[in-house]
Amino acid sequence: MTYADKGSDPKPMIPALRGLYENVAELYWPLLRVTAGAILFTHGWPKVMAGVHVFAANSLAKRGIEPAMFFAYVVVLLETVGAVLIMLGLFTRVVAAFLVVEFIVIIFVQMPNGYSWVNRGYEYPLFWGLIFVAMVLRGGGPYSLDRKLGQEI
């Protein structure tokens, strides 16, 4: 179902470009998916380069998240391989569901700092968690390998 199905499609900002808006409408979701995956990757790659054991000791173990090495590998796998899968739109819902769990943990860890991300609060992880909730609900969408394979789970 689309906005058009409900008769509430938003009015174009520039009415003369209505045709362009309609032609690129199917690109909105892939743009969001690829951007989210690419940005997530930029959080995972430094953990790979520093070493998973460094991330486990400096981040997870310090916060009492144990077994730190196991969870460090899970986080690094999600933020690198998972990010690439999100960009490709392959196993999108499954990977996004695991990422929702990761971001719920991050939210609870950051809650004592308050809401504002300036104070290392939970605002930023909440934002990203909700994006991945949307991916769980929506799947890979158009131009995803999930759709191409006909296996959107």
Silhouette: globular
Please give the share of residues in helix.
Answer: 55-70%
Number of helices: 7
**Beta-strand content bin:** under 5%
Rg, alpha carbons? 18 Å
Question: Which structural class fits the helix and strand makeup?
Answer: mainly alpha
Mean pLDDT: 90
How many β-strand runs?
0
Order of helices and strands: HHHHHHH
- How many strands, what sense, and barrel or not for the largest sheet? none
Unreliable stretches (pLDDT < 50, length at least 5) are none
Terminal CA distance reads 18 Å
Describe this protein's structure.
- The chain is an all-alpha fold.
- The protein is 65% helix and 0% strand.
- The protein is built from 7 helices and no strands.
- The protein has helices at residues 18-24, 28-50, 52-60, 68-88, 92-110, 123-138, 145-149.
- Helix 2 runs antiparallel to helix 4, helix 3 (52-60) packs across helix 4 (68-88) and helix 4 crosses helix 5.
- The radius of gyration is 18 Å and the shape is globular.
- The two termini are 18 Å apart.
- The mean pLDDT is 90.
What's the short version?
The chain is mainly α and 153 residues long. It has seven helices and no strands. Helix 5 runs antiparallel to helix 6.
Main traits of this protein?
153 residues, 0% strand
SSE layout and pairings?
Blueprint (H helix, E strand, L loop, with lengths): L17 H7 L3 H23 L1 H9 L7 H21 L3 H19 L12 H16 L6 H5 L4
Helix pairs in contact: 2-3, 2-4, 3-4, 4-5, 5-6
